[in-house]
Amino acid sequence: MKEEVFTLNAPDPIGPYSQAIKAGKFLFLSGQIPLIPETGQIEVGDIKVQMERVMKNISAILESADMNFDDVVKVTIYLRDLSNFSDINEIYERYFKKPYPARSTVEVKDLPKGSGVEIDIIAYKD
Predict the structure, then answer these.
(1) How far is the C-alpha of 16 from the C-alpha of 23, rounded, in Å?
(2) Cα-based distances in Å from 19 to 29, 49, 60, 109, 126
(3) Could you report the per-residue pLDDT of 61-103, keeping only the tens digit for each?
(4) Which CATH number do you get for residue 12?
(5) Contacts by residues 106-111 (CB-CB < 8 Å, ≥ 24 positions apart)
(6) Which residues lie closer than 8 Å to 1 by C-beta, 6 or more apart?
(7) What residue numbers bound the domain in which 71 lies?
(8) pTM summary value
């Protein structure tokens, strides 16, 4: 059985998808870009500012499903510029602790609304 997860504390989807879907003990979050929930606009600033906004949005969705970053088992990070790798890691380490979730980081040509970063995750809560 699957269930939609939605919170007003994260951006509304900008297309035909859900913020997240809970399927059994798993939670699958759609890719989050640095949208400000109240305005739907991209957070203005460097990659660290954008990364911080993405992590806040993910946190809000996790909380709405009664989960947190400790429940995350897989992270995929999409970057427009892989030279920002160390900057995103700096922010990432504020939210995750050991044992870190499995992770992939890939450079892409472009992201929605010109974002510098997009992250999707899978969480599991027993």
Answers:
(1) 18
(2) 6, 21, 10, 23, 21
(3) 999 999 999 999 999 999 999 999 999 999 999 999 999 999 9
(4) 3.30.1330.40
(5) 106/76, 106/77, 106/78, 106/79, 107/78, 107/79, 107/80, 107/81, 107/82, 108/78, 108/79, 108/80, 109/80, 110/80, 111/33, 111/78, 111/80
(6) 23, 24
(7) 2-124
(8) 0.96
Q: Identity (one letter) of the amino acid at 74?
A: K
Structural domain total, the chain: 1
Could you tell me where the DSSP H helices lie in the chain?
Answer: 47-64, 85-95
Looking at the chain, the whole-number percentage of residues with pLDDT higher than 90 is: 98
Q: How far apart are CA 99 and CA 109, in angstroms?
A: 31
